[in-house]
Amino acid sequence: MKKLWKKWKNFYRNNKVLAMLIIIIIICFIVIFMACFQYFFMGIATNKYGDRLDPIKNVKISNSKQDSIAKKLKATEKVKKASVNVTGRIIYVTIITEDSASIEEGEGIAVTVLDMLSEKQKNSYDIQFFLKNDSKETGFSLMGAKNINSNAISWTNNTAENA
Prior knowledge:
By secondary structure, the chain is of the alpha+beta class. It has two domains: 2-45; 54-155, 2-Layer Sandwich (GMP Synthetase, Chain A, domain 3). The protein is 42% helix and 21% strand. The chain has a five-stranded mixed sheet, covered by helices on one side. β3 and β4 form a beta hairpin. α1 crosses α2.
């Protein structure tokens, strides 16, 4: 170690400018490494949505509210299964209807979900609807969406006749 230190002192005495540049470059590399490390690895522990969920802090939809909506949907005459999931600012409503249900009845059942939500919730969350009927004669799969800025549900035209 002493020999290395002597070599460095000797190099420094003979090449002061080059030695100072090397020290500055080493300091710059350390600063760049620290900045990259902080940028790429320190942000991992934060929320994946960032601050995009701040507007819904006061309008949360609880698990009990989700269960309540799903139970009300299941209690409807033409519904086999129903589920409600909230992820971020999107409410996903999945409804599987009885074989005898028509597309219009399925859409009508989905619209009742809007009546179960408050105006603040409807204006804070996007709502995605997935309707499915596995009947061989009248089966259908529909997707619908209600945007925060819209009052109506937009439906796809993905029925068995069009598939």
